[in-house]
TrEMBL record:
<protein>
    <submittedName>
        <fullName>Serine/threonine phosphatase stp</fullName>
        <ecNumber>3.1.3.16</ecNumber>
    </submittedName>
</protein>
<feature type="region of interest" description="Disordered">
    <location>
        <begin position="81"/>
        <end position="107"/>
    </location>
</feature>
<dbReference type="Pfam" id="PF13672">
    <property type="entry name" value="PP2C_2"/>
</dbReference>
<dbReference type="InterPro" id="IPR036457">
    <property type="entry name" value="PPM-type-like_dom_sf"/>
</dbReference>
<feature type="domain" description="PPM-type phosphatase">
    <location>
        <begin position="17"/>
        <end position="281"/>
    </location>
</feature>
<keyword id="KW-0378">Hydrolase</keyword>
<dbReference type="GO" id="GO:0004722">
    <property type="term" value="F:protein serine/threonine phosphatase activity"/>
</dbReference>
<dbReference type="InterPro" id="IPR015655">
    <property type="entry name" value="PP2C"/>
</dbReference>
<dbReference type="InterPro" id="IPR001932">
    <property type="entry name" value="PPM-type_phosphatase-like_dom"/>
</dbReference>
């Protein structure tokens, strides 16, 4: 896997991407990592955990494993493009919002992304086992990504943990993924008092032998902007502040907007590593 540069704007088959990762103001090392592969149309953000350098190892290894799995697929399996149901909806807590998506099912790209995520988890779990780390206590990482193959009208969203994917469309920001945390689970259940900590994950890649990723398809439109980020951004900066930056984004300003988001997180405390990747679709 070729290294992903934080100083490079990527020309995708259907748009542009730019990513930036910063250690923040408190942490001693950066356990976040991201990947942009223009040829595969693959963009991923991972936020590692596990103490010392284990989180950095987990996020780096997760990106490499996922990338290798997708790169080795036979592209002929994806030549038949299925049209999305315009009345399908986003999963989880966004299910009431019509968004032109297709839920997890038998589409080959969804199947491939799901298998790739589970492969990553199995490999990281095996490393934890070999290092004698107990179940649930080993190194791990979140993973949130999009995969849009060249010439495809749709893209696959895959997600484990609490990194996020947002979309900016028609002057409105929408959170596409749902945080897999005890905090979000409590909110979804209608609990408003004695809430658990915001960063207590329900699942991540690596600590446990099984994982159930959120995987679905959606249809980007020309002019759509997608933001992938670790919780080091949204934990420090509220939705309105993020929206104020995204409304000024264009293909020419992706670099400036990415830096602005990272600086906002640092201005508001910078307590965690912060990673942002902006993806602009022009087709």
């Amino acid at each position: 896997m070729k290294p992903t540069s934080s100083n490079q704007t990527y020309r995708l088959a259907t748009g542009y991407a730019f990513g930036l990762s910063d250690i923040g103001l408190v942490r001693r090392n950066n356990e976040d990592n991201f990947l942009v592969d223009d040829a595969l149309g693959l963009v991923i953000v991972c936020d590692g955990m596990g103490g010392h350098d284990a989180g950095e190892v987990a996020s780096t290894e997760a990106l490499a494993l996922f990338h290798q799995f997708i790169a080795e697929l036979d592209p002929r399996a994806f030549h038949t493009e299925q049209r999305d149901d315009p009345d399908a909806t986003l999963p989880g807590r966004h299910a009431a919002q019509s968004d032109g998506t297709t839920p997890q099912g038998t589409h080959p790209a969804i199947t491939a992304a799901t298998r790739a995520v589970k492969h990553v988890n199995a490999q990281l779990f095996a490393i934890n086992r070999s290092d004698m780390r107990p179940d649930g206590r080993g190194m791990g990482t979140t993973m949130t990504g999009i995969w849009r193959q060249p010439h495809s009208a749709t893209m696959v969203v895959f997600h484990v943990g609490d990194s996020r994917l947002y979309r900016w469309r028609d002057s409105r920001m929408l959170q596409i993924t749902s945080d897999q945390t005890l905090y979000q689970q409590a909110l979804d259940a209608g609990i408003t008092v004695n809430l658990p900590g915001r960063n207590e994950l329900l699942q991540a890649l690596g600590p446990s032998p099984a994982v159930e990723p959120e995987v679905h398809r959606l249809t980007p439109r020309p002019g759509d902007l997608y933001l992938l980020c670790s919780d080091g951004l949204y934990g420090m900066v509220n939705d309105q502040q993020i929206s104020d930056v995204l409304r000024n984004a264009t293909p020419e300003t992706l670099v400036a907007c990415s830096h602005q988001l990272v600086e906002l997180a640092k201005q508001h405390g910078g307590k965690d590593n912060v990673t942002v990747v902006l993806v602009w679709f022009d087709a």
